[in-house]
Amino acid sequence: MACRSGCCCGSGPINEDNARFLLLALFIVVYLLCGAAVFSALEHPKEREAKERWTQRFEHFSQKYNLSKKELNNFLRNYEEANVAGIRVDAIRPRWDFTGAFYFVGTVVSTIGFGMTTPATIGGKVFLMFYGLLGCAATILFFNLFLERVITVIAFVLKSCYERRHNKAVLPQNGRQVSEGNRASGAGEELAGWKPSVYCVMLILGAAAVLVSCCASLMYSAAEGWGYLDSLYFCFVAFSTIGFGDMVSSQRVAYEGHATVAYRLGNFFFILTGVCCIYSLFNVISIVIKQVLNWLLRRLEAPCRCCFPRRGHHPHRHPRRNVVAPGHLRARRDPSIETDAINESETDTGRRLSGEMISMRDFLAANKVRVD
């Protein structure tokens, strides 16, 4: 029976959902610290060089044209204000005509937010708050529905291939060929509970995201004059909705040697497709991360049974969800895309304490793939 009044950690039993949450929070903190260390080592020397180079240019310019540093700083502040309003040294497309505004609202509702265009009026800022609230929610719903249909199509294709392979593997019984009815019946019974592996779905979505990014990079390299690696960088930043704004596509008034309208349509298509693919990939990766957390929790149960009560010994313990362990720990079946089991917290209170970004169980139940 689980220990209730203290343990080696100095506290009572920890709920599995809370343990998973704390483990994920610890992972994110460590991940942020490692990322900060890597980017600081890579980018900080470049920042120092740029700052020293700018100081030298500033001094040289002020001396050459006999300008005081105060006057020059005031002029540069004025330029920064103009830059925020969309004024650039090179000619670019208007920011707030209808097509420019349409590009802006697209970056808002998709949560990309490049930052090169921002509302300057009070009315625009207030309207953006309400507009973004509904628009972002609707777009996230669209991405979820897109993922549902992608998973449904992948599941149908994989299940059809699995059934075809299974039918070919059926051997004759007693020297006679198995009848089509018996073969179909046996295949139906075996495939009744079959679901696609989450790793297979992740691989397919990853391949689709890479393909879209590579094709889009070719277009951006040719139209914008960027290097191919820079174009790939832009694709990931845009498709993942990070949207730094250091590189933004389709900002020129016209593109020499290219059909401007065709390029703008291609840009819209690739950004929409890329965001859908990357968003779907993030969702599936989150399921894999949750499976790894469950596996780690199982490993942590052995040294500290008080913090993680043994299954079947705690009277109020909920059934485990998403218990999918890597490799040999899962001998009976592969991890499938449907990873949530029905549990008390979902059926009674209608909420998931530790569900994925979307509920795979819910949309697969609504989009059952049947093989007749």
UniProtKB/TrEMBL annotation:
User: Which keywords describe this protein according to UniProt?
Assistant: Cell membrane, Ion channel, Ion transport, Membrane, Metal-binding, Potassium, Potassium channel, Potassium transport, Transmembrane, Transmembrane helix, Transport, Voltage-gated channel
**Cellular compartment(s):** Cell membrane
Provide the Potassium channel domain boundaries.
93-150, 209-290
A Gene Ontology biological process noted in the UniProt record is:
stabilization of membrane potential
Is Kinase among this UniProt entry's keywords? no
GO annotation, cellular component aspect = monoatomic ion channel complex; plasma membrane
Membrane topology classification: Multi-pass membrane protein
Q: Which domain of life is it from?
A: Eukaryota
- Similarity annotation: Belongs to the two pore domain potassium channel (TC 1.A.1.8) family.
Protein's name in the database: Potassium channel subfamily K member 13
In its UniProt entry, the species of origin is given as: Pundamilia nyererei
